[in-house]
């Protein structure tokens, strides 16, 4: 398991952990523009999750290019 793949895993797991840990955001304060915390926190994670998924995808592409280059140069891909 390479550090790059660990980073990919963290990017993909973080939104699940944040949303499944309901006790951390099951409250009304602080409100943002009159919207209770419970709602705007979840909507913020929609944006954050998108950014993290895009980051994971770009890291995956980089990892695959690196593996293909090592394989083409006669190196062993692990």
From TrEMBL:
Keywords: Membrane, Transmembrane, Transmembrane helix. The keyword Protein transport does not apply. It holds the Pfam family DUF3311. The chain crosses the membrane at residues 7-26, 38-60. It comes from the Bacteria. This is Integral membrane protein. It comes from Streptomyces naganishii JCM 4654.
């Amino acid at each position: 398991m390479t550090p790059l793949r660990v980073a990919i895993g963290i990017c993909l797991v973080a939104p699940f952990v944040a949303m499944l840990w309901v006790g951390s955001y099951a409250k009304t304060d602080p409100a943002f523009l009159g919207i209770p915390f419970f709602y705007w926190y979840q909507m913020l994670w929609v944006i954050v999750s998108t950014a993290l998924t895009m980051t994971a995808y770009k890291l995956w592409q980089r990892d695959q290019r690196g593996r293909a280059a090592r394989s083409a140069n006669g190196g062993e891909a692990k």
